[in-house]
User: What shape does this take?
Amino acid sequence: MKNLLKRRIKLLCIAGGLVSLTVVSCSKDDVESNDDTNVNVSSYEKVDPNNPVVKILVSRGWNINKIQKLSNGDFSVGDISFSGNIKDYNVKKQAREELVNDYRNISVFVHSSITQEDNTNTDAPNEDNWTDATKNAITIWNSVPDSGLRFTEALNIEDADILIFSDFGLLADGTLGQGRFPSDGNAGRTILINLDYNNNESLDYDIRFDTMVHELGHNIGYRHTDWQGQGEGNDTLVNIPGTPTGDNPDPDSVMNAFVDAEFNGLSFYDKVALKFMYPN
Assistant: This one.
């Protein structure tokens, strides 16, 4: 992630305007043993177009020129990661491959690694504590009328669908966070937060809040709203009905690849997309 102009920062997640979906299995292991944590996003390999997972990703609308292989065998498109295990993909499913089946109760656990109090920075006190940002991000997603999506707070890791924790130095310095696309009807298992982002730059609450809303969107199947401008899709993609198209179709969307640090909530079209993806 980079600071651009008036502290516009590039975030990690998916789009409020697409209907292209995927499947991958997730275990509920602890942070230390979860395979999803063993990702060095700074290390990429060229993808083999004949790789069966790559073929699936391309068939679901991802631009093959944007797909990269991670050092742990997974794949990514920019800030979006995918399982590299072909067994995690149900190739027979075509309707909701990249959405969450049990979307009325998606439990979220905030690991202690991102709940540390830090009052040494008077400009941004408690900047390493993402608890409030996560709780308020959950409230934002749960408050959309006519959508059945509901996040809940898990009390322990074993009960969590989504685990949010520090990247423990895995993410590149310029990357603030990384979400995980849904798989096998389950929400993306992890959200990584880079507490040392941009040489330990001070991050105020609005940035943390905005980031967490954005990342949760990624984990329930949102691509970047401006996927066309980012060149992340291919000709097979279609937009969600009722949402605009173009390189920058919704400047107010929280799911744009570049978002303003000042968070103003979900845009009108973010909500249209949510009600289509997860109806009441």
Notes: The first strand starts at residue 3 and ends at 4.
